[in-house]
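Page 37, continued from 36.
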């Protein structure tokens, strides 16, 4: 490699490194408040409702900061604490008997809302106006973190393209051959410029994908916190709560003759809802297999 080609290569590669350093500085500045929050969070136990927000779903790879899963976790915690129960259709209601008000503000707001209803689903908790106080309490537990890493890989890949193509054309115009070839015709750069592009693209791909979840350490702590909080939960509870997390399909509504939601006190409402014997049976179901430890989390 001639000294001239060495200077050309070094100059363009320094430009590529400087561009990526600039991306790193931009990320550092934009996440300053988030890093401050995480430093404080390391000194305390992660709130399970906040963990539900961040994990987003009970499976890995879900999007972060999803309200639906945070609401599911809140309901499951209230059922586990005793004041609430959930039936096989995912409808949540207060359990029979006297129960003390939960100390957690979000759970207390949820329990207060359930006193005025015979049974609701998670979907109704998130869409109906009468549960707005619960949604407000739920949003207060949202961690001040971005949902995804952000657009950094794409600019880095574009920089890799510009640098590799510019470096190749620069070398060709100054009459430098491609290093390693016996034929030092500068025209080879018109084809072989893709080799440095491939190498630089691999370096640029070290940036996380735009939609990837940042802060993996906090994600692990959230999984552990949710596992501890729901360790004594019945395996049926999570499944039942999740059944009511989505709106009923049109076909199901038509089959049930419920294209319009029935008021809670309608005589033709679901059989057994509100009946003390049925509520007792539901409660018995929820007490089965407390040691199973079904745990949601990302």
């Amino acid at each position: 490699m001639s000294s001239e080609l060495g200077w050309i290569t070094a100059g363009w590669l320094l430009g590529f490194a400087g561009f990526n350093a600039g991306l790193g500085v931009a990320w550092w500045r934009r996440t300053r408040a988030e890093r401050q929050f995480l430093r404080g969070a390391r000194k305390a136990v992660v709130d399970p409702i906040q963990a539900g927000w961040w994990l987003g779903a009970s499976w890995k790879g879900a999007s972060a900061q999803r309200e639906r899963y945070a609401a599911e976790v809140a309901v499951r915690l209230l059922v586990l604490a005793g004041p609430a129960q959930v039936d096989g259709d995912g409808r949540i209601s207060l359990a029979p008997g006297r129960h003390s008000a939960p100390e957690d503000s979000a759970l207390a707001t949820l329990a207060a809302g359930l006193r005025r209803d015979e049974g609701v689903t998670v979907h109704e908790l998130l869409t109906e106006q009468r549960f707005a106080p619960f949604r407000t309490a739920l949003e207060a537990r949202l961690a001040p973190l971005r949902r995804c890493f952000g657009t950094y890989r794409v600019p880095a890949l574009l920089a890799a393209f510009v640098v590799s193509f510019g470096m190749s054309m620069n070398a060709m115009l100054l009459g430098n051959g491609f290093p390693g070839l016996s034929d030092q015709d500068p025209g080879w750069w018109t084809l072989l410029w893709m080799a440095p592009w491939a190498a630089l693209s691999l370096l640029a791909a070290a940036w996380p994908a735009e939609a990837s979840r940042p802060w993996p350490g906090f994600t692990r702590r959230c999984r552990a916190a949710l596992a501890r909080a729901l360790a004594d939960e019945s395996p049926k509870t999570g499944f039942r709560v999740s059944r009511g997390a989505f709106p009923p399909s049109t076909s199901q509504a038509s089959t049930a003759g419920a294209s319009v939601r029935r008021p809670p006190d309608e005589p033709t409402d679901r059989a057994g809802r509100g009946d003390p014997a049925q509520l007792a049976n539901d409660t018995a179901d929820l007490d089965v297999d407390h040691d199973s430890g079904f745990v949601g989390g990302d």
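Residues 250-298 have pLDDT under 50 and may be disordered. Flag for discussion at group meeting. The chain has 14 helices and two strands.
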